[in-house]
Every structure is written in C-alpha cells, then in structure tokens.
Description:
This protein is α/β, with parallel strands linked by helices. The protein has 29 helices and 29 strands. α11 (about 320-330) crosses α12 (about 355-365). The two termini are about 50 Å apart.
Amino acid sequence: MKILKFGGKSLANGKGIQTAIQIIKNKATQQENIAVVLSARGNATDELLEMLGKASRKESYHEQLSAFKAYQGQIDRSLDFAEEFTILENLFQGVSLLGDYSEKIKDQVVSQGEIISAKLVTNLLKKEGVNAHFTDTRILIKTDDAFGNARPLDVISRKNIINHFKSHNGNTVNIVTGFIGSNQHNETTTFGRNGSNYTAALLANFLDAEELQNYTHVDGIFTANPELVSDAKKIEALSFNEANELANFGANILHAKTIVPLIEKNIPLRILNTFNSADNGTIITQKTTTKGIKSISVLDNVALVNLEGRGLLGKIGVDARIFKTLGENGINVSIISQGSSERGIGVVINADEASKAIVALEREFENDFYTKDVNKISVMDDVAVISIVGQDLSEFHKPYTALIKNQIVPILFNNTVSGKNVSLVVKKSQLHKAANVIHGQVFGISKKINIAVFGKGLVGGTLLDQIIKSKQDILDKNNIKLNVFAVADSKHVYLDKDGIANDWKSGFEYEKTAYTLQQIIDYAKANHLENLIAVDTTASKEFVHNYINLVNNGFDLVSANKVANTVAYSFYEELRIQLKKHQKNYLYETNVGAGLPLIDTIKLLHKSGEKIKKIRGVFSGSLSYLFNTFSVEEIPFSTVLQQAAAKGYTEPDAREDLSGNDVARKLLILARELDLKHELSDITIQNLLPAHLQSIRLEQFIKNITDLDQTYKLIKANQQKNHVLRYVGDLSTETGTLEVKLISVPENCALGQIKGSDSIFEIYTEAYAEQPLVIQGAGAGAAVTARGVFGDILRLTEKL
C-alpha cells in the first residue's frame, strides 16, 4: 500500500483540486492500493483561526464566514456541509459571547477544515467512478488530552486503523482526514503544525506501507526556501536523519514528528509536486550516498527572551529555573545562549508564547528583582532563526564573514554537539538578505554582486556595455553573477532589481525617475540585495560626499572619480575610518594611470616596507598624446590639441587638462598612498595656459586657441637636440616636494620613448635606486578607463 497526502494548496479551488482528483483517480484506475490523507483546502485553517480571533475580540466575522462557506461549497454544490457550517456558527457565537476561547474550542473549530476537505474529495471521486470512502480519523486515532498538540495513543490507534482498513480494503480508496484525532472522551484534538503529515506517517507505520507520497506545491525539498532564495536547488535524496534535522530546524514541508514513524518501519517518504507530474521529487530513505550540507532552514515565528543581571554571575541553578518555569508552562526552548560571564542568558521560543514566557519568568524571578540579582527580562520578537543543516563548524567562518561584510551581525549563534548544524539568530528585517548571503557561500551557488553605477556618460556607458557583454562569461568561469540594479545620472535613475539588459539605454529613457541617494539605498534594502557595490564614473565634486553614506549603508566603493582622494585630508581620513569601521573596500586604480596597475603596486611596495624615494612620470594620457605628437611632428600646437579633443582624450573643456590640476590630483593621490598628508595647495603646478586664456568663457577659449601656437613653437625650438617635451608629475618623499611641470628630456630615455596617449611612471626605491621600476601603458580613453573600473569590480568580488 502507498499513502498519499495532499496539502492545502494542492486542494485549492481550480487547478489544485482538479489535479489532485486526477492523480488519485489515475492510481485507482491502475489498481494501485492507496489511501489518501488530506489537509484543509487552500487557506482554510488560517481563515478559521482568523475568524476565531475576531469572535474572541467581539469583532464581526460573519462576512468572512459567508465567504468561507461560498469557497468551500463552490466546487460541488450538490454536497451539503450544513453540519460543519452549523458547528462553526455555534462555536463562533459562543466565543463571541464569552470573549475568549480554550485550546479545546480551537481544535473543534480548525478540525472542520479537514472534515470538509475529505468529504468534498470523497464525493468528487465517486462522481469520477472511484470507490472512495470518507474516513474520519477522530474515530480511529485516539490521543491524550493535550489540545492543540496531542499525542496519539499508539496501541489503540494502531488497532483501530488496522481493523478499519480490513473492513474497507480491496478496491476501496479511503479518504482520510489529516491533522485531527480525539481523546478518550471523544473530544476533538489536533496534532499541531503540519499535523496532516504526521497523520499520514502514522497510517504508513500502522499499515506497513511501502511508501508515503507527500504532494505539495513545490518539486521537493530545496537547499533553501525558494521564496527567500531564488537560487535554491532541489535536493534529490536525503536520509531520515538529515530530514529529521531539517524538520526540527523549521523546514516547512516536514513536521518534526513525521519522520519517527517512518524510521521505525524504514518506509520511504517522497515529496512531490502536485502541479509537476514530470518531476520525481525528493526521496527520503534510511541512507543516501550524498554527503555534506543539505539545506538552510528558517524559523521566523520566534522570539528571543533575555535575562540580564549581575546576580547571574556564577550563580548555580539559574538555567534549571528557567527551563523548569518554561516547561511547566508548556513552552519549548529551541536555542539557548549564555555568555561566559553568565551575566545574560537568552532563549529562543515560539513567538506566540513570548508573553506567557515573560509573565512566568517574572513570577519565578520576582525575589531576584528585589535583590537586584536580575535587573531585566526582555523579549525581542523581530527575530528569525537561520539553521545551516550539515554545516561543519570548521567552515562556518565563510558564511559568517560574508554576513558581516553585508552588515548583518547575528544576535547569537548556536551549534549542535555533532558540530554539523549551526543556527543563527538575526533580525527579521535582515532574514531575506541573510538567507541569500549564507546560501551563496555554503552551496557554492553563483555569488551575486549587486551594482549601482553612478554616471552613464562615456566611461560609465562603456563600462555598462562591458559588463553586459562579459557577465555570462564571468558567470561561467568564476561563478559570479554581476547584477547592475541601478543606473543613474545626476538627475535620474533606472532601477531593476533583476539587473539591466542589453537595451539599458532605452530602458533608462522609458523607466527613469528623479531620485535621491536615499531612495536607491532604500530600494536595495527593500529588495534584500546583498554584496552591494557603488561605482562612481562621474567627475562630480558633489557626488563624492555621498561615499560615507553609501559605506554606512553596506556598499563597497569603486571609483574613477579622483575628487574623493584629493579633497581636504580630513574627508580623506574620515572616509577611511568609516571603511574600516564597516569593513568595506574602496578601489580606485583608475584614478591614476587609467587601467595600469600603479596604485596597487605602490600600496604593495609601501606596505612591504620598501621605502619609495621618488615617483616621476607622465600622468595624463591626454597631455601625453599632445606632447608626443607635437614633439615629433611639424604641426601647430592648437591643431594637436583639437585632435586630442576629437579623440576623446581631453576633458570637454581642455583647460582642465592644460591647467595641470588633473596631473596634480593624481600626484596627490600617490602622495597620500605613501601616508603624506598633503593638500592640493601644497603642489607646485605649472599651468600650460597663458593668463589671458585661463578665465574666459569656453567659447572664447576655443576661438582664441591659436594664441598657444607661438608660445609652444618657441619652447620646442629652444630644446636641446634630440630632446622632446613631456608634462610630468614629480614626487620626492625625501624633500616632501610635489611638482607638476613641463620638461624636456632625451628622446631615447624612458620618458622620451613613450608614444601615443601612453602614460609612464618611474618608481625609485631603495631596491630600485639606479634603475627605477617602470610602469607604462595606455593612459587615456573611455574603453581603457572603463576596463580599469571593471577590473576593480572583479577584484572586489573576490573580497566579498
């Protein structure tokens, strides 16, 4: 015999009930020996409890009751539920008069959902030609008097069920009410949460079934709840022990008591999807061949009760008093946490029992309050428990570190004696994000990196195109999923939690909205986005002041914007204080040398103790192109400048480059990397523009650009033979001087040999005193800079 159990969603009006009936009919037609256990249909149990609550508060429940009756009777209007509806009406009316109800009354109310469900399915099957028989388990399964969480009386229940199935066997399909039984006085009792699964397991045990098939609305048991973690994967097979752990730690498909009757008889349990007949589901047996972490389970209906007081220090028997008090009040403790100082003890219990627990504990420790041994008993009801079933404690640092980096600090954690299961208590508001972060770490599922790009101009737009083009290859090779959820310019933002697509430009135009930075931060929080990176490809002096706010809200930073590293040293220092405080990263390799590995090299040399004496080089790719071309070609300086602008090498206003401020900022960035606390005003800058061109409007400057030609013709002519012009930055740690200036160098030296828009940097250290360490390469262009920013993003993903 096989026992089939159908859950509430599998029996809901529409496709659910139709599919369930067809599954049962097909098995009966094929002459399979089956019995069917049913839950209440749809949300019946929740609705009944809600109406019961309204009645106890003397609120109107009649409209909801009418809707409940209509829904339950909609499928088969020939069936009369007058008896069940009358019972509900009388019970609700009585509760409304009293303003209260007992667990006994509650069991009578919720049991009607299963009775209605079983009667309906029985009648529908008969109409399909199936010899179905309605079976009320209140007659068969006898229990103790623990209303709401009853325990079956094994001997008598077993006898009743065996005798019943002897009388109704052969081609009869017994349709059995799940969840309910009755005590020795024939009063209705229930088995608690997911009790229908328990009913099915008891039947399987008593009848020596070959398999229990649990039909639900999902394909089986997953590595995490798919509603929380979209990347969750189905588990093909589990052992009974693993399933039992999952059940104890909150897996909502399983009931903690369900596994025990199956283990006793070694009866396989298969979790199947009512709506997906092609899937084989998850099979649970005595042993499996798979090893390792199995699943992440969540308990979100919990509360953390804390006892605090100086008198707890070294006091014997406090724990015993807590457990005794809670036990006497029928309150189960799932997790306990106690500091080594014993000044505080925390216990995790069911949230519905928190108020009762506080009252009971305050009564127990009343005298301790007077002696001030206990000064506070409090409750946190905005918490949830995440359990990593199968987690080896030796590897726990990985998910724990990932949580911290995502600004999720567990309130407490607990591991089992076996060291294979770890439970964390987190704030409920962080549950969704925490589950995704942990899942990505422990299962090696693709790590999701959520990126907000500020600035969609030449560099920003090129970067976005590079990410879109490369993201599949990065996913395949590195198991990293790059998800750009925000694209913003100075006024508008385009948001998509699932990530922008190839047509992001048109998406921006159609979907853009005005924004504040806080709205983007709130969007990330509302959508539980983890591993956040803010990318600044602007040149904005104002936007950099958002960096600290971004860091405080969980973002790592990648920036091509040099301003943040060159404003007042007080801001520079405060940003790094906040980065350290929140364990965040700030990468800005493209601030100097575009995509060249300059800053990382200098950092490594400096941290290793290698004394850097001097850095000299051509810092600007645009000015490199300008003087490389002008030095070797007989062409007016203004013409070369116009060519550089046309190639996109210069800023829109070329005076930004010619003023020397851009080179000075880059030089200052390197100085600060060497712990020199310089300001921009400390740098001696040679402005390449004559005074009369420095402050006029851009239109006038462009009109008068030929004024530069005579000056630079003379400078070029006055060089020594075989020399070329180079605009360089020069930093000396020995003298503390920083200079930006135009110099003439031999064309065969390192500085003289560069071509095009290349940048070059000479680094003189104790080890590289005579022959400097030279870094050279493309120093300008949107594609090069964007690729450098992309490189920083990828480096950062390795740190997250």
